[in-house]
Design brief:
Largest sheet: 6 strands, mixed
Number of strands: 14
Order of helices and strands: HHEEEEHEHEEEEEHEHEHEEHH
Distance between the termini: 92 Å
Helix content: 40-55%
Length: 280
């Protein structure tokens, strides 16, 4: 009997220890869960900095230029985000990278948001929440003027090489609307325009606002008189990792203000002019 009591007491102690450990684990998991769910807006305001991933090779939304002998990132996206950050009472830390890495940086937590003339797609919506659109620009086909009479319809691009920036919706546009063309994906947009200019590419698909900036500085190029179907992807938005509703709401508030006053339209026009003057 004595042995039984001793054994029973040990069993109770072990059982009690398991219960205590279980409760500790529950508390720890709950704490981790709450930490994970904290909205990025809280961290941004606490640190006084919003980290923004962008690919500044897409004039007039984002591009490099020289000011006072120094290289500087400028553009409508840049100016808009700086204005929004100021309204939020924080500073911007810009993360300059290729477009193909912009969304990945935000998804992996290296950046708080991605701002780089980004369009909404069903695939992107699986990983990101998007703000209300801040600008809408139709898609166009840019060709070399030498081929103006050769390319007058989408059918004329059958078996022809058409460029698009890697990782952008323009790749999907070529695949879905120019089905018989051969898609050539290139990482840097200026290189695609150069290839069309040289004649190694027959055309490229890009937003009209961007096309206008490049065509104005390159008389060898032109926008083909070939309409592409309009889509929801024509609108540009800020990408925010899922689970940050407060941050999305704050951004939407300021985007709405800037659109209502016509500030974003002015930013696009101003930077389009700057891109033309600087040769971007």
């Amino acid at each position: 009997m004595l042995y039984y009591k001793k054994d029973f007491g040990g069993w109770v102690m072990k059982k009690g220890l398991k219960i205590v450990l279980g409760m500790v684990l529950i508390v720890l998991f709950a704490a981790c869960g709450n930490q994970k769910e904290e909205d990025k807006l809280n961290t941004i305001k606490k640190d006084g900095v919003i980290k923004v991933a962008t690919s500044p090779d897409y004039a007039p939304f984002g591009f490099h230029t020289t000011m006072n002998g120094k290289d500087k990132i400028v553009g409508a996206d840049i100016e808009m985000m700086e204005t929004i950050a100021k309204k939020m009472g924080v500073k911007v830390e810009w993360l300059d990278m290729s477009f193909n890495a912009v969304l990945a940086a935000a998804k992996e937590g290296k950046a708080d948001v991605a701002v780089s003339a980004i369009s909404v797609t069903s695939e992107r919506e699986e990983s990101f929440d998007f703000t209300t659109d801040y600008y809408t620009s139709p898609q166009v086909i840019v060709i070399n003027k030498q081929h103006e009479n050769e390319f007058t319809s989408i059918d004329h691009f059958s078996d022809k090489q058409v460029g698009a920036q890697k990782g952008t919706i323009q790749e999907n546009i070529v695949k879905s609307q120019m089905t018989d063309a051969k898609l050539v994906s290139i990482e840097k947009l200026p290189n695609i325009f150069l290839e069309v200019k040289k004649g190694s590419l027959d055309g490229l698909v890009v937003e009209k606002t961007v096309a206008d900036a490049y065509v104005s500085k390159n008389p060898e190029l032109m926008i083909a008189n070939i309409p592409l179907k309009s889509m929801k992807e024509d609108s540009l938005c800020i990408a925010v990792p899922k689970g940050n509703k407060k941050l999305v709401a704050a951004l939407n508030k300021h985007i709405k203000e800037l659109k209502e006053t016509g500030e974003i339209e002015k930013m696009v026009e101003k930077n389009n002019q700057l891109a033309q003057e600087s040769g971007n």
